[in-house]
Each structure stands twice: as C-alpha cells, then as structure tokens.
Amino acid sequence: MSRLSDSGFEEELQISPVKHAWHECDYEESCFIIQRHNELQFLAQNCLAHQPQITAEARSKLVSWLIAVHRQLKLSFESCCLAVNIMDRFLITTSVAADCFQLLGVTSLLIATKQVEVYSPRITQLLSLCCNSFSREQLCNLECLVLLRLNFRLAAPTLAFFLDYFTSRLTGYQIGVAIDEMHSTVSDTEAWQEHRVAEINWKWLACKVCELSLADYTFNKYMPSVIVQCAVKLAKELLKTHSLQSTEHNTGSVKTSESFCSEEYPPFTCENQVLFQQCTDDLKLLVSLNQDAVQDLIRL
Q1: pLDDT per residue over 175-198, tens digit each?
Q2: CA distance 156 to 188
Q3: By C-alpha distance, which of 222, 264, 247 is closest to 45?
Q4: Which of 28, 77, 133, 141 could bridge 160 with an S-S bond, Cβ 3.0-4.6 Å?
C-alpha cells in the first residue's frame, strides 16, 4: 500500500490501476484520482467514540466557530476543512478534556494554514480569538503533539478539494453548452450575464451545503467526495425548483437560470448508489433544518 507524502502527490503510487490512470490524465484529473484513492486513509469516522467529555453538539459548536474564524481571517475554505480533518483525526488518537477542546480547534487551524496558506495567522491573533484563555506555550506544545500523533500526514482529501474539482468540471461543461446555444441564435450579453449569475449562485449554494455538513457529526461517516457529489446534486435541484417557481410568477424572466439548472452534466463517480442516496437524504434533512442559511442564496 503506497503512502503519499505530505504534499499529497510526490511519492510514486504502487497500485497499478491508479498509477496507470494517473499517467493517462491531465494534472487536475491526476490530483483527483490520487486524492480519491487516498480518501479512506484520512477518514476520521466515529472520532468521538472514545471521547468521554466531547459530544457531537460540542463538536458542532466548535466547527461552526472555526468556520466563522476562517471567514474573519479571510482564510480559504480548504484551510477550514483541513483543520476539521486534523482535529477529528487527533480525537481518534487522544482523549481531550472539554476545557481544552477550543485550544485543539485553533491549533488544528494553525497547522492547516501552515499547510495551505501563503501566510498563516499569528499565534497571538489566534489566542486573542479564544479570549486569551490559553498560553502560547500550550498551543505550541499541542501543535507538536498533534503532528506526532498524526505522523505529520497532513495532505488529507477535503470537501474543498473535491468541491473545486467537481464545480470546475461541471461549470466548464455548462458554460460550453451556454456558448453553443447563444452562438446558434444571437449574441445576447444580458442572457450571458444571467447565466453567469446562476452559475455563481449554484457554486455558492453547493459550498454552503458542504459547509453545513462540515459542522454536523452525522456526515463524519461519509467520504468527502461523496458529500460533495451529493451537495452538488442537491444544489442543482434546489435552484431548479426555485427557477420553476419563479417562472410561474414571471414567465421567461429566469429562462437562462432555469436552463443552467436543468442541463445534463457529465456523470459523477460514486460507485455505491445506496450510500449516495443516503447521503443525499441526510443533506436534504440538514438543509431543511437550516433554511435561513441557504434561503438567501436560493433567491439570488
């Protein structure tokens, strides 16, 4: 069994099907194949099973706080997703006291930003977000412990990685369809702008669904690629439903948006359709419980 290096892509893959596929694809697809192959190794399933003081509710609150922090510090979604993965995998290895859980969260975020960002936040900045409840020494000591327990394996496949891959592939396909349609009729700048707005809205909605799943312990059992594929499918369905409802009130005003949502797209890669359906159902329930968080995006 091959083990990828910290960057995720340097070491030669020993399993022949993946190795052959890797050589036959472009760079983006190669990264995707490697990360799909690598997912199971980094899956932090049942990470709270042996945590006497940390509950699913406490994890949800901390992850929601980390999401808010990553926005405040203008960090990438990749950093946020990787921080949660680092935290969850550490919870599998070590019992954490409830009063140190927030410290684990910011320490995981610091490690993730060092892996992903050009510049990571200052330690003093992170500690101030915790109301200076912890010392610099505590954070640095925990950082060393986390790295040791994870054996410095930080290149986990994340929701952000697969979201970027699937949305870029799907929007590229949709844009090509839209261009062909407009060339076959007449050049229409307004229709193109409308299509772009629909595309941006769809991508943001898919990202929001993924973000909600990140904080919900229910989705800890699913691989990131499965969650993202289901989130993309659900976002498409939500926008299509909204477009049809809007059309009933104002016929023709959302023609381009509706076309964008209803176009066929290249097939996804989830082999287990039962698992795919279960994840989709869980996401639908999650969205229904968080209507306020997604409603504004659907209306755009």
Answers
A1: 444 444 444 454 566 665 666 666
A2: 43
A3: 222
A4: 77
